[in-house]
């Protein structure tokens, strides 16, 4: 598998992870004020997932330019 194919597969997995983190945050928001103490940890997981996905997408753009 080439670096490009490997990176695309990784992005696909990260996209699913980010989508799940978004849904977890959404679900939490609908349950408020129940579990309000977990807002920061759930939001941090969503933030981290999307930040990693964005970094990998930038890596892919750079790799495709070569």
From TrEMBL:
It comes from the Bacteria. This is Rop-like protein. Belongs to the UPF0437 family. It comes from Bradyrhizobium sacchari. It holds the Pfam family Rop-like. The keyword Signal does not apply. InterPro entries: Helix_hairpin_bin_sf, Put_N_fixation. The keyword Oxidoreductase does not apply. Residues 4-66 form a coiled coil. Keywords: Coiled coil, Nitrogen fixation.
